[in-house]
Structure to design on (748 residues):
């Protein structure tokens, strides 16, 4: 609209809830419409009209009947309007408003063009359109264009729209306003309170005077570019190279799984969504996860959308949050020319087919929707073969998914009735889809292979001789499976009996589940493979009793290697079968998958000979001031089983909180370790290690480490960046002292 309109209708909408800047944010229904006509050419004002929406008391629940009755009595009071109309529903109210507006314009006879004018965007975008969409009410054409009086005022008086209101504009234009006796002094009202009837009429009268002041000299303003409300959502494509502003995107969460982009556009009715700006999100299985990313035409519309947080779509409330343009492009952006051509046809309904036979052809799909033997369920595909898009892997293999175009919603609904009908030997699932879902499905299948590819071996980088030692499997450990959940270290030692003397120091490793509770599994390091095999043969499926609980269960005992034990303790899994002397017809290791991922627990106390502190007093004071004495000071061992000598000492920094190394694994990552790195103390894998070598020393200094230098493998050996460190770092050896050994950090 380029020329100035003949009539402006200043409009104020009031709900039964909040008003002002919070209007429409609480989902309250429309209660009244107040308007006044302004003759632009003659600069004359018409009558002030008021339309009350009074639902019948019989249509309201018992809890609200009393409130509605009180409101009806209050509305009958004089509000100051010249004409008062009533309606029983929103649909009747909108039609009555449109009819009265048309009659008033026709009676004036000075022109035909008319447009609404409101104080801000909320009256039209946040009240009338959302409620009409939720009730499936057809909105008259006059509500799809309007002038924002604040923006028109800003062209002459620059100001902040967020703080601008009718009272500020009246004061800036020096317009005298007489406040009714029932309203008190003129000024802004509490936004959280319901707008009184007299205040609504007063606001309309002030808005009409502001319009006349803008039309008169010296301003001589022209009302020529109204705000527009999109009548329908336009589907379209979005390129990954397109720039999307972060201030125009929101994330909607809690959508019904069967909702479409049209349902999302209906939820945000009154706000202008960009073309193709509604993108439904899919989960890892390719199904909708109840979330969507919506792109609006401007930041102003995005901010209005955020005010609909926890508004309802049917019986579900929808959460609305801010999102980024990058998030939107990940879902809706695409680069395939084939998809762009397929989605270039406008006004098409998209249906997704899932579960197609891999040998399905275009002709079979066309025959599925338009069988030749009858015309009852015929729903022709738009464009024939060009209206079908098969989804394929990068190597051309079919995925079993396809998208089909239909010319109208009637044909699409007819096609959806064929849900789970048979094509070939398989039933086909049909869903109403969107352009963004097409892009998302294609991106998921074309961006990366679904089956992960193993990392490239590093044999060309690392020396071949040291990385490929002959594998030697020594089964010097035991795995106990099926322990009572109340079993303690003492119960395990009693169960082992005479084999307790063959357990290495710190050799019992209880396995916890993800909740930190006993999982029923345990690993024990033995002194020799022979004793481990003998213990498994004599104790397999014997019953273990608990001292602190009534549970008693038979326990399975299997021999295993330190490598297998380390794999399970670090989050790996082994097979369920095992080979040993009394069960040679089975194959495997006999180790079930671990009940937890990399969770280990060393016993709180275990027999070992008294040892002096690892660090002397002066070294502890230098390395851990002023907490060195607290961390490294020995504490007496609590009395317990006979196998626990009372003279033993425990150190907090390693015996209680750090599990001892489970064994000597001969593998690091996916590759065997070089023989040059093997030592009597073995190797220990520490996932998630920081790149600071001093932190590593602080973590392992409490262990009974060998006196020779320690070699540390950098993470670059397993294909990960090492943050600039060399591949191998040699740490100095422990220096002997009369009271023990300590590490001189100054040598690092």
């Amino acid at each position: 609209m380029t020329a100035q309109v003949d009539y402006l209708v200043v409009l104020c909408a009031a709900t039964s809830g909040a008003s002002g800047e919070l209007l429409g944010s609480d989902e309250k229904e429309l209660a009244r419409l107040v308007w006044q006509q302004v003759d632009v050419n003659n600069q004359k004002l018409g009558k002030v009209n008021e339309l009350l929406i009074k639902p019948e008391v019989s249509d309201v629940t018992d809890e609200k009947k009393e409130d509605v009755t009180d409101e009806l009595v209050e509305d009958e009071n004089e509000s100051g309007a010249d004409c008062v109309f009533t309606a029983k529903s929103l649909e009747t109210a909108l039609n009555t408003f449109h009819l009265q507006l048309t009659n008033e314009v026709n009676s004036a006879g000075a022109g035909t063009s008319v447009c609404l004018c409101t104080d801000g965007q909320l009256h039209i975008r946040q009240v009338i359109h959302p409620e009409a969409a939720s009730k499936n009410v057809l909105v008259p054409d006059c509500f799809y264009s309007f002038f924002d009086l604040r923006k028109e005022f800003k062209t002459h008086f620059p100001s902040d729209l967020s703080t601008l209101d009718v009272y500020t504009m009246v004061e800036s234009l020096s317009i005298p306003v007489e406040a009714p006796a029932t309203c008190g002094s003129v000024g802004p009202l509490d936004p959280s309170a319901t707008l009184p009837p007299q205040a609504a009429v007063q606001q309309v009268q002030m808005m009409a005077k502001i319009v006349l002041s803008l039309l008169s000299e010296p301003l001589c303003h022209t009302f020529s570019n109204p705000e527009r409300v999109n009548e329908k959502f336009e589907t379209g494509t979005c390129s990954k190279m397109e720039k999307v502003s972060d201030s125009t995107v929101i994330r909607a969460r809690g959508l019904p799984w069967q909702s479409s982009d049209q349902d999302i556009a209906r939820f945000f009715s009154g706000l202008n969504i960009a073309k193709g700006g509604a993108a439904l999100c899919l989960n890892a299985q390719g199904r909708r996860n109840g979330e969507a990313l919506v792109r609006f035409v401007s930041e102003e519309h995005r901010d209005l959308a955020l005010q609909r947080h926890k508004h309802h779509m049917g019986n579900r409330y929808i959460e609305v949050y801010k999102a980024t343009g990058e998030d939107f492009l990940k879902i809706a952006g695409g680069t395939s020319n084939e998809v762009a051509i397929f989605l270039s046809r406008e006004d098409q309904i998209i249906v997704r087919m899932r579960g197609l036979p891999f040998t399905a052809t275009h002709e079979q799909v066309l025959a599925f929707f338009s069988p030749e033997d009858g015309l009852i369920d015929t729903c022709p595909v738009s464009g024939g073969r060009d209206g079908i898009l098969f989804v394929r892997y990068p190597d051309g293999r079919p995925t079993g998914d396809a998208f089909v175009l239909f010319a109208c919603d009637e044909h699409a609904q007819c096609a959806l009735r064929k849900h789970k009908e048979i094509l070939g030997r398989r039933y086909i699932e049909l869903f109403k889809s969107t352009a963004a879902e097409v892009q998302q499905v294609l991106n998921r299948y074309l961006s990366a292979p679904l089956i992960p590819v193993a990392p490239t071996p590093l044999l060309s980088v690392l020396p071949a001789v040291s990385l490929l030692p002959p594998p030697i499997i020594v089964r010097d450990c035991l795995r106990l499976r099926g322990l009572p959940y109340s079993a303690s270290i003492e119960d395990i030692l009693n169960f082992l009996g005479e084999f307790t003397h063959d357990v290495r120091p710190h050799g019992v490793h209880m396995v916890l589940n993800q909740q930190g509770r006993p999982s029923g599994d345990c690993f024990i390091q033995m002194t020799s493979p022979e004793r481990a095999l003998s213990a498994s043969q004599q104790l397999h499926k014997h019953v273990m009793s608990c001292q602190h609980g009534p549970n008693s269960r038979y326990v399975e005992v299997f021999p295993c290697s330190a490598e297998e034990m380390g794999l399970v303790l670090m989050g790996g899994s082994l097979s369920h079968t095992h080979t040993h002397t009394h069960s040679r017809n089975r194959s495997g290791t006999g180790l079930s998958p671990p009940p937890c991922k990399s969770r280990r627990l060393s016993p709180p106390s275990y027999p070992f000979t008294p040892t002096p502190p690892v660090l002397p007093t002066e070294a502890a004071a230098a390395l851990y001031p002023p907490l060195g004495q607290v961390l490294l000071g020995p504490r007496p061992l609590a009395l317990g089983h006979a196998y626990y000598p009372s003279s033993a000492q425990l150190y907090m920094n390693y015996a209680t909180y750090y599990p001892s190394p489970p064994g000597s694994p001969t593998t690091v990552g996916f590759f065997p370790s070089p023989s040059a790195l093997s030592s009597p103390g073995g190797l220990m894998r520490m996932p998630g290690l920081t790149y600071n070598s001093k932190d590593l020393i602080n973590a392992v200094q409490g262990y009974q480490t060998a006196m020779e230098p320690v070699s540390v493998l950098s993470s670059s050996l397993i294909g990960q960046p090492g943050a600039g460190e060399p591949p191998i770092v040699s740490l100095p050896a422990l220096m002997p002292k009369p009271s023990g050994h300590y590490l001189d950090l100054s040598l690092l």
Notes: The longest helix spans residues 90-108. The longest strand covers residues 30-39.
